[in-house]
Amino acid sequence: MDMQVSFLDRLFEAGLLIETGVDGLYGRSGQFEDVIAAFERLIDRTGGPDGAEAIRFPPGMNRAYFEASGYMKSFPQLAGTIHSFCGCELDHVSLLKCMEDGQDWTKGQEATDIVLTPAACYPLYPTIAKRGAVKAGGQLYDLQSYCFRHEPSKDPARQQLFRMREYVFMGPQDQVMAFRQRWMDRGTEMMRSVGLDVHIDVANDPFFGRAGRLLVNNQRDQNLKFELLIPITSVEKPTACMSFNYHQDQFGLKWGLHFESGEPVHTACVGFGLERIALALFHTHGLDVAEWPDDVRRVLWG
């Protein structure tokens, strides 16, 4: 039996994930949520002393910001938009008749001004740009949001709606690079403290199409993205549970993020895939939290 399906079935049977009839869209049990909450407290203990400004955006973002971000140029296959009924009473009658006949009633829906957030940091950049110049020493932000990516899969670690915790640093290049390296070290230590076998490797985003292949090569050649990998459904192909991304001055130029001097800021982010980390813990230590190793439980719950 396929290892991904087997692990997913075990999660369903244990009640940790709840099937909805759509691949990659699951309910979560109280125990599953408790593991995520415990790991977020570990994130807070590790990163809290840095003094980041905490911001929590909803899982939808301004469509105009989304379009300006260039996401559709690079990842159209992953994007999700929100459409709604905007018709009159006659249109409503037609919609109901369409549903009764088993036809596609969604064709009458119209795009709204909201799209589903693809990454927790996307709403941050235009928000901070509106505040004015970035401080010379840089600014640090703590984010968490549900995110959407359209990639239905039987792999429980590849969900369509999932939570991402991020720290984003905006500042001078040398400090941004030091921030990323610091979190690569911290991330490895954090995962090992909860008994997870990890390694970090250079990576790339899933850019779309022929032009995307050039972007993949460029991203890997410049070491712009690293991922912390943990075996969940495959030892040969471990799952990325954290990412460490250096954007150079890309977002500084795109959103007008700059210092008082007018020079664009550089940015980097560290992202935690919260569901994936919980799945890695369940896969490694078993589906019953009460039977996890004592040292792991102490780190997570004290």
TrEMBL record:
The keyword Aminoacyl-tRNA synthetase applies. Signal peptide: none annotated. CDD domains: Gly_His_Pro_Ser_Thr_tRS_core. Keywords: Aminoacyl-tRNA synthetase, Ligase. Gene3D superfamilies: Bira Bifunctional Protein, Domain 2. The keyword Cell division does not apply. One of its GO terms (molecular function) is aminoacyl-tRNA ligase activity. SUPFAM superfamilies: Class II aaRS and biotin synthetases. InterPro entries: aa-tRNA-synth_II/BPL/LPL. This is Seryl-tRNA synthetase. It comes from Gellertiella hungarica.
